[in-house]
Amino acid sequence: MTSAIDRLSFRGWPAWVGWLFLVLFGSFIGYTLFIRLLHEIGASRAGAFAFVSPVIAVVLGMITYGEEVSLIDIIGMAIMLFAAFLALRERKQETSSASPPLIPRSARAVAEHERRRAHPAANQP
Predict the structure, then answer these.
(1) Are 48 and 84 in contact (CB under 8 A)?
(2) d(Cα 104, Cα 84) in Å, to the nearest integer?
(3) Engineering a disulfide at 45: which of 41, 67, 73, 99 sits with its beta carbon 3.0 to 4.6 angstroms away?
(4) pTM of this prediction?
């Protein structure tokens, strides 16, 4: 009787190449790109890219292995891409000249402090 570990063991160079591909592209490069996205566009928008990767995986499966895709699969992919579009699109900000700027009080205090520090002569009576 064989153990579970024996059944899961690597079987030749194709398994090693597949493992190396997953380590390099799935882990190292994917993680690095995700961290860069977090830094550049923020967590909520970077997280929306999770909707796109399953669609890419299905398309690659169709191209490389001839996997069949049903109508329900296509509808699901369209919904996921639309959700990513909604999450990533730029929103128009309507601003009125009469409304005060949307800066928290603490940020205003910091800005005022920096202004006073930059022009100390203007602050004296």
Answers:
(1) yes
(2) 30
(3) 41
(4) 0.49
Q: Which residue has the tokens 């190292």?
A: 28
Tell me how far apart the alpha carbons of residues 75 and 94 are, in angstroms, rounded to a whole number.
Answer: 34
User: Measuring CA to CA, how many Å separate 12 from each of 2, 5, 17, 20, 22?
Assistant: 19, 16, 9, 13, 16
Percentage of the chain surpassing pLDDT 70? 70
Mean pLDDT of 88-96: 66
Nearest to 85 by CA among 61, 52, 108: 52
Q: Residue ranges of the alpha helices (H) in 3-125?
A: 4-8, 13-21, 30-41, 43-47, 53-65, 71-88, 105-118
pLDDT surpasses 60 at 95: no
pLDDT digits (tens, 9 = 90+) for 19-64: 888 888 778 888 888 888 888 888 878 888 788 888 888 998 899 8
SS3 104: coil
